[in-house]
Amino acid sequence: MSRASVNTVTNGLFNKSYYDDILGDRIKDGSIGEAPVMPGGGMFIPVATAAWKDKGMFRLDAPKYSADLCTGCLECAVVCPDAAIPNTVHEIHDLLLTAIGKLDITEQHQAEMTKLVFPLTKAVRDFYRNLIGKDNPSFSEIVSQSLSRLETSSLPAWASLKHDFEKMIEVLECFPVAKTRPFFDAMERNEAGSGGLYSASIDPWKCTGCLECVDVCGPGALSAEKQSSQLQAEMSRNFEFLNSTSNTPARFTDNAIEPGGDSKRLLLDHDNYYAMTGGHGACRGCGEVTAIRLLTATNKAIHEKKRKAHIIELEALIDKLNEKVKKIPRDKHDPFRVKRIKKTIDTLEKRLYLFEGGPTGNGPSPAAFANATGCSSVYASTFPSNPYKDPWINSLFQDTPAVAKGIFEGFCATAVEDFTALRTAKLDLQDLYDPEIHDSLFRCFNWHHFSKDEFSLLPAVISMGGDGATYDIGFGALSRLLVSETPIKVVVLNTGGYSNTGGQTSTASYTAQDSDLTRFGVAHSGKHEDRKELGLIASFHPKVLVIQTNAALQSHFMKNVMDFLTYNESPAVFDTYTTCQPEHGIADDAGNRRAMLAIESRMSPVFVHDPRRGDTLAERFSLEGNPEIGKDWITTTLDYIDDKGNAALLEIPFTAADFAAQEGRFKKHFHAVHQDEDPLPIDEYINLSKSDRYGKVPFIWSTTANGKLIKLTMTSAMVELTEERRRNWRMLEYLGGLHIERLEAEHQLELENWQHKYRQSSVARETSIDSIARGMAELASISGAPAGKVIPVTVAGADTDTVTGAERSPQTTPTSSEGGELVEISESDMANCTNCKTCYQDLGELFEKTKIMVDGTAKEVSRVIPGIFDKIEISPELVQRASRVADDCDVEIIQFHAPVQVE
Known about the structure:
- This protein has 31 helices and 22 strands.
- By secondary structure, it is an alpha/beta fold.
- Among the domains are: 12-46, no CATH class; 57-211 and 226-251 and 268-273, no CATH class; 287-585, Rossmann fold (3-Layer(aba) Sandwich); 742-769; 823-896, Alpha-Beta Plaits (2-Layer Sandwich).
- Helix 21 links the parallel strand 9 and strand 10 (572-577).
């Protein structure tokens, strides 16, 4: 269901039918040698032709969906590079009507069955409301049971209708759907009747069998199954049924692109999900395509919302102008006003036509791509398949920024007339247009004068390429663009090498990387230079927004891709770490997993440089999204088999060397530690001076093929990589102002210590004076002296109320109505976690993943970050997100405590 828009009114070279007749069909059936010459062949491909490409014939395995285990986390939809697993929320009645529509029955019977859909829908919904837990009947079984409870005996044709309903239930058996917490329970709790049922259907013609979706599915709703004719038939029936259903209702996606909204939900809208079709020519599990798909989907969602709002604005302006022009009196100061307004109306009506649909029926494209030569250009133009629905051009390897600049200037030249008309309309409606002022103003009007709202109505102009085209040969053109203040969006698909031509080393490659031109061998230990940090270089160009991110960290990626696409003050750079399975030496299903480990190991930290946030570097740089900021390395757990054959866990620091040991491009740097060597953990080894390292061998913990613990030592080049990545991380921490935070924390601690000492001293002095006073009173009573007045003794600086010997406890603000933290997961509940990833992906500020032992087996689960509430400020936006995450927890182990007061 990779939807492609066929432009029926387009003639000539870009006519889809003409293209297929001459070329497309000949390539599919193998008769290309007999095809006539295609005019312009090799120079263009019609949009979205990849939607007709069948990639399923190449797979050996396929994912199988088990609806009873699904939590609706959207992980599979996010990670899939092939647009092969659309996630959808269905109305119950839509599923029933779709099944009825597939029956081979008369129209009269269909009409009679349709009359029962409403009461049947209500019965099914009531059935779901009363279900507890996940071990539930299938949707078809629930429909069958609900149908049996309906009062049907009074229906005259029930005998024949009953048979038709049984056939309807058989049709529904092929389409499994899930009742999930976020899309049924939470919705029903807010508004009865608003919940929907969830599906994750696999496209048999687009799925390549990379199985990344299986890898990320913590609850196990997706499992790997060998490809067979039976499985293919099941997938085909399921997907054909999905094709007949409606798109996800808008209420499930409305707030996806709003601040604090669940941005992943925009993928539930098929128009967004298929902003880039499947059928591209990339490798299985390609990390680049996943990043591009998320970017195009987000851009589609943003611009579609603006398009609809702009249509309403244009209609209102045209109506008001038509009324206005009828009432305008003659004006000697502005004799051409009527003519100007009529011209404005003509311009706005033309713009309205284009925004409502235009000649293609699809409206204006939300983006235009200038793509550098490389992997991203090859898999996007593997003749005759083009997955893009937006205008896309491939120029040379090095000049993409210049091409993008030219495209932008062309768009703006066209937009000047429209924006002039919009401004003129508003001025004329308010009777504020002055020919002496505005005629000359609009005569020189250009994009430098555009407002923020006007920029937002332009399509995003995106310059895209790999790290070779941006870090290396195209770096000069990119740098020139970054100082031009032209709001071009620059996307860097960073694989750390020239993936398209065999994985040659680039300046984005890591130290010690074993790649073409820097092979590991006798003469060299891989690449010997340090990696160029393009993100940091770009950050020191004027007013440039820089985002270094990673699609595996979904909340960071989706939030910042929206900022990237809507930033129009200057150029913006979006440098995303993308896995390349063959060149990194990882499995097809490991892309998302390895990308997350790249963040955790400090190999590819995420950061944002936003020039709008302030004047200092500390204000502009944000390291939010990185785990355990303030530490060189995070602590992780390694599961292994101990000497008794039992599963066990070992806490270790996760260094760059630990990351590298699991990838083919670094594996030659490691070997087992010999018995006569003196091993020292790498994180301790690099803290030693060179002289102190003598005689010691750095090592990391790993496991053998059978799960036993083993110590691996490494080459000096791998030690250099670990040191270089630590040095880069510390520099980012410094730029992010961590040194300032540490100084402030140390100052605050020292201040509190002095206050504590002062209080103790004050208490001691007061106690001493009390003792003296008592002694004097006793002496006076013994001597018979008259009692005098008690003179109160005030200690300078002390509180006027009673000071106890204990330290005064600081005044605190209640954090919740129940006295607990904002969110909690008890240790006893952690074993029930299904690892759907929703909490630590959507709210990484509060949650993290960890491993625990459950019934003798290591299990990855979520937990609240220990001590996090001593370090974080609770904001209303954080409370809102925490509440949503708790509501979405499928096993209901997250306890949410609404704060009484948030400072």
